[in-house]
Design a protein that fits this description.
Elements lengths: L2 H11 L8 H34 L5 H22 L11 H34 L5 H21 L8
Length: 161
């Protein structure tokens, strides 16, 4: 195959190069990756839900907790990617950007704390049937750590003035 024919063949199968301003190209890239990362998060959540449904028949609390953690992590990935617009980095006002970043951090600190409290409660609930006090204490510690994390998130917006 001659070189011009190779170029002609490649031009038929390759897409046209993107056009637009650099900020439009960057936004298109962010939109593409956020879409696919959100889809992957949904798949992870779906796999976790299936694992949890299949682990209910067993009495092993570790498998059930692992499945719940996989499902929740998928939901967290999906939710985190859907909140990318909170940063509004196109503005040049530093106060607005700092406020957006602090709001994002506060929101996700609260969500992670709630997740920790939920995981602790689930760990404690699964440990009730066991006679192992250490497992129950670990569940209560995880619950308390999540509650502390949620309470810390309420003071973060105070730093934005």
């Amino acid at each position: 195959m001659a070189f011009p024919q190779v170029l002609e063949f490649l031009s038929t199968i390759l897409p046209d190069p993107p056009s637009g301003t650099p900020s439009q190209l960057a936004q298109n890239g962010i939109n593409f990756f956020s879409l696919w990362i959100a889809r992957i998060g949904g798949i992870v959540a779906f796999i976790g839900a299936i694992k949890f449904a299949l682990s209910i028949k067993a009495d092993d609390a570790r498998d059930q907790l692992n499945a719940v953690l996989i499902m929740i992590s998928g939901f967290m990935i999906r939710a985190a990617v859907q909140n990318l617009g909170i940063f509004s980095l196109s503005t040049t006002n530093a106060n607005t950007i700092f406020s957006s970043v602090m709001t994002f951090i506060s929101t996700w600190t609260r969500r992670v704390g709630a997740l920790g409290a939920l995981i602790g409660a689930i760990m404690f609930a699964f440990a009730i049937k066991d006679e192992n006090a250490a497992t129950k204490i670990n569940g209560l510690k995880t619950f308390a750590a999540g509650a502390i994390c949620m309470s810390v998130s309420t003071i973060l917006p105070l730093f934005v003035t």
